[in-house]
Write a structure and sequence with these properties.
With 249 residues, the chain is mainly β. It folds into 2 domains: 122 residues, Elongation Factor Tu (Ef-tu), domain 3 (Beta Barrel); 107 residues, Jelly Rolls, CATH 2.60.120. The protein is 2% helix and 57% strand. The chain contains 1 helix and 16 strands. The protein has a 16-stranded antiparallel sheet that branches. The chain starts with 9 loop residues before the first strand and ends in a 7-residue tail after the last strand.
Length: 249
């Protein structure tokens, strides 16, 4: 596979596309705590994997608005509640994306000697760690009515370790929109992935759903995002994570 740069990326925070105000992402981290279990019979270290963790840190340019998706308006309150953050490595359908649910722990401004003013934001995962998946939308998908998204080929025939999915809704006009995930073995016959339906959305926001801890749910080769509901405008993005090993939540 060809190597690529980090240009043309996006960053979404709780249904806000702050990409235009972000200059760098110095840390996109997924980590695993370990416990040393080396005993006296062994000649090298032995370890157990423990809790997963993660964080996404980024640097924002000063933009006080009035654009609704400006970094300042969406970060200045430093909320105590969890935030959903998704970094998109490109915005093509099926592109790799990293998501987490976590705490925004700071919003630190820095006025440099040259007069530039930037702000540093750190987010720490809370409960699920950092998860890499694939975009089921080409960046942001705009729909004027309910419909099916394009399919993404995950290449492996199927896995039986479950899944997680992240939804960002950036704009909405109507009664509600419900986004769900479907899978297929042949890219032709589609079925709803069990429990993979987000709560109906009526405004800007974000959600995370999963098959649950220790899931053995099978995810087939092809997946797509499907919307239902009554609306005239819905703009959203979906990052889908198919687990390749057991033990995720």
């Amino acid at each position: 596979m060809a190597k690529s740069s980090g240009m043309g990326d996006n960053l979404y925070v709780d249904g806000f596309d702050v990409s235009g105000d972000i200059g760098s992402l110095p840390r996109i981290s997924g980590s695993l705590a370990t416990q040393d279990i080396t005993n006296i019979t062994q000649s090298a270290n032995a370890r157990l994997g423990l809790l997963r963790d993660g964080g996404i840190d980024y640097g924002a340019f000063w933009n006080p608005g009035p654009a609704a998706d400006s970094a300042h308006l969406s970060h200045r309150t430093l909320p105590y509640t969890d935030r959903a953050v998704t970094y998109c490595r490109g915005t093509t359908l099926g592109a790799n994306a990293a998501s987490l649910v976590g705490k925004q722990i700071n919003y630190d401004g820095n006025r440099a000697p040259d007069g530039s003013f930037t702000l540093a934001v750190n987010t720490l995962a809370n409960g699920f760690g950092l998860e890499w998946g694939n975009l089921l939308t080409a960046g942001k998908l705009t729909q004027g009515a309910a419909g099916n998204g394009s399919s993404v080929d995950l290449t492996a025939v199927s896995t039986a370790f479950g899944w997680a999915a992240y939804l960002h809704v950036f704009a909405f006009t109507g009664t509600s929109v419900t986004v769900k995930i479907q899978d297929s073995a042949d890219n032709s016959a589609w079925l709803d992935l069990s429990t993979a339906t987000f709560t109906a959305a009526t405004a800007i926001g974000s959600q995370r759903i999963s098959a649950g801890p220790a899931s053995t749910a099978t995810v087939r080769r092809y997946v797509r995002a499907v919307s239902t509901g009554t609306f005239s405008n819905a703009v959203f993005a979906v990052n889908f994570v198919r687990y390749d090993v057991a033990g995720h939540a």
